[in-house]
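All the exercises in this workshop are built on plain-text protein records. Sequence and backbone structure share a record, each on its own labelled line. The structure tokens are whole numbers drawn from a learned vocabulary of backbone shapes. The record below serves as our worked example for the rest of this section.
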Amino acid sequence: MSKVCQLTGKRPITGNNVSHSNRKTKRRFLPNLQKKRFYIPELDKWVTLKVSTSAMRTINKLGIYNYLKKLERKGIDTGVKL
């Protein structure tokens, strides 16, 4: 299963583990993704999305319908039919 946010597009990035002796080994920084069901009252339906917690905060602020409309205007495909 991919570790990519369906709304923001956040994905894992790479970096280094740095030890006390300053040795560096590769590591991955994973986004904080949660599988969440959202109810869209304007469409009267439920959608399940895999979203980052920062996207959840934006949804709480704007509302799911307005946030999806905003992404649609930017040309970002979310997989949700409005």
Observations:
- The chain has a mean pLDDT of 93.
